[in-house]
Design a protein that fits this description.
Elements (H helix, E strand, L loop, with lengths): L3 H13 L9 H18 L5 H32 L1 H8 L2 H4 L13
Helix pairs in contact: 1-2
Length: 108
């Protein structure tokens, strides 16, 4: 959320940029802009930079754990089904056979 000083500064700049005929009402406009800004920004679901950084760090740790777990699962699957990985590694594309066909067994 914006700090009160930043909010006041933004409201003041908006009031200063009003046409000359309305500058008489500058103080009222400044208060009105501040109130409108507070209300509008209050409706937004904003977080502080610190909260954002904390959540970004949590996400990074979670992604790293997920990648480690995925690698571990792959290792365990490979260890429990060694023949499945061997046949999966030799796909029809690797043998030059058309897709969707089994490669021909070697002639003896």
């Amino acid at each position: 959320m914006l700090e009160p000083k930043q909010l006041d500064d933004l409201a003041r700049r908006l009031a200063e940029n009003m046409p000359e005929g309305l500058k008489v009402l500058r103080e009222d406009l400044s208060r009105g802009f501040r109130s409108t800004l507070e209300t509008g920004l209050g409706r937004l679901d904003l977080v502080t930079r610190e909260e954002f950084d904390v959540q970004a760090a949590v996400l990074a740790r979670t992604r790293a754990k997920l990648e480690a777990l995925a690698a571990r699962v792959a290792e365990l699957e490979a260890a429990s089904h060694p023949s499945a990985t061997k046949t999966a590694a030799t796909s029809p594309a690797d043998t030059g056979a058309p897709a969707g066909t089994d490669p021909e067994p070697p002639s003896a």
